[in-house]
Amino acid sequence: MTSASARVTLIAMLVVGLVPVLLPLVWMISTSLKPEFDVFAYPPQIIPARLRPQNYADVFSQAPFARQYFSSLYLGFADVVGTAIVASLAGYALARLRFPGRGLVLPLLLSALLLPSEILIVPQYALFSNLGLIGTQVPLVLEPVFGAPAIVGTFLMRQFFLSLPRELEDAGRVDGLGGLGVFLRIALPLSGPALATLAIMTFLANWNAYLEPLVFTSGRPELITLPVALNEFTNFDGTPQYSLQMAATTLSILPVALVFLLAQRHIVAGIARSGLKG
Questions:
Q1: Bridge partners (DSSP) listed for residue 240
Q2: Where residue 248 falls among pLDDT bands split at 50, 70, 90?
Q3: What is the model's pTM?
């Protein structure tokens, strides 16, 4: 097979592989622009026969969607910052500091990931209830920072810091830096790819979370986030308003797509460098 034919074959395979990935996205956008009674038209219409962009305006008029959108955004970024602080400090401590029981800390942390969130949410609910935080958004900030995202982030950052040459830190100590100074002025600035990867993973996990926002906010419309809010677009008899749901879903994927496009060049580098040492 010549190089030209091999290239054509590769492109054809990629196009075929993209179809099942892009078709749901195309159908979602198409449905978001249809009148409700055209959603189940037969034969199915990829290109709407009648456009109804008013669906996007109805999303904001029928529910406090703007507030729910803002809640998802600021909670996502708050969790990214909090998780990055906790994971980078813990990861550096596990990679560089010597203390009793150091070898047991990481296995114990990773073993916590074996527990499904449906089990963990019961004691978490009891804890936050005793603190009087149920019905607020405070648990949505604290739970990821000290939960599974932080554990995965700690492992990721530990692996990255293990890959850094110790000579860089030794040079900082020669210049008079203490342990915290070495971390803040040498190790942390070099961890950009790993932090970018951690930020994307944390943001996506928070953005797509459903159970925790539903339980901890008690389902209050002004406090819930987008995944929960998408179920609020229903008729009086409880049947879904598919056009509005698809319009809301289309709007909800925009920040995720933007975050990925801005940081995608760091993802492969961060994951690759984080796996260099055990």
A1: 234
A2: very high
A3: 0.81
